[in-house]
């Protein structure tokens, strides 16, 4: 992650957000979808990097989350509702 430029991180975060819906979804599903979108440009894309970016997006309020985000199959995320 330290080797990535801010532009690359922004691209990765945008790809993650584009996979998220306004309803609850397993984090593992979002990671898989983001990985599929990013694999051509970032062939060594790391699941750990994606999971870390999801945790940061949730901390920033750009995603709603439930469960422990360190356990991808046992946590869920969604886009925040407009009234929150």
What does this structure look like?
The protein has 84 residues and is mainly α. It has a domain at 29-84. Helices cover 46% and strands 10% of the residues. It contains three helices and three strands. The protein has a three-stranded antiparallel sheet with strand order 1-3-2. The protein starts with 5 loop residues before the first helix and ends in a 6-residue tail after the last strand.
* Structural class assignment: mainly alpha
N-to-C SSE string, H for helix and E for strand: HEHHEE
Widest sheet, order of strands: 1-3-2
Average pLDDT reading? 92
- Report the C-alpha radius of gyration, rounded: 12 Å
Give the distance, in angstroms, between the N- and C-terminal Cα atoms: 31 Å
The main pleated sheet reads as: 3 strands, antiparallel
Secondary structure blueprint with pairings:
Layout (H helix, E strand, L loop, with lengths): L5 H14 L5 E2 H12 L8 H13 L4 E3 L9 E3 L6
Antiparallel strand pairs: 1-3, 2-3
């Amino acid at each position: 992650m330290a080797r990535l430029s801010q532009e690359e991180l922004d691209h990765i975060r945008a790809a993650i957000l584009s996979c998220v819906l306004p309803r609850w979804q397993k984090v593992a599903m979002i990671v898989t979808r983001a990985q599929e979108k990013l694999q051509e440009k970032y062939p060594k894309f790391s699941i750990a990097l994606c999971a870390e970016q999801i945790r940061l997006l949730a901390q920033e309020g750009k995603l709603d989350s439930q469960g422990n985000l360190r356990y991808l199959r046992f946590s869920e995320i969604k886009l925040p509702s407009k009234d929150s």
